[in-house]
Sequence to fold (122 residues):
Amino acid sequence: QVQLVESGGGLVQAGGSLRLSCAASGSIFSINAMGWYRQAPGKQRELVATITRGGATNYADSVKGRFSISRDNANNTLYLQMNSLKPEDTAVYYCKCRAVLTTHSLYEAQYWGQGTQVTVSQ
Fold:
């Protein structure tokens, strides 16, 4: 099993910045694609940004130019640098990864973090 532990969420004023981290642990053989998703109250969960094992990135139009996703493969850690935050960025942010466990080298599964609250005030 893979456990994802997120940190860095909180309350910030509009125009401010936050840096989210997601540390993966467990019987991990390899972690492939990773990403951040978010969900605001009463709305569907949406993709924020993704990054492949090789470092190729993709962003939602709403965050392009403001957010930056990165990863540290040596430490199995994912990051999301959020700048120029807006009230509409307020949501629960979820970390996701696709990983292969050491106990089953042919099996790749998707894992989710518990979510961390990001609140941006006016």
DSSP finds no helices and eleven strands in the chain. The chain has a mean pLDDT of 96.
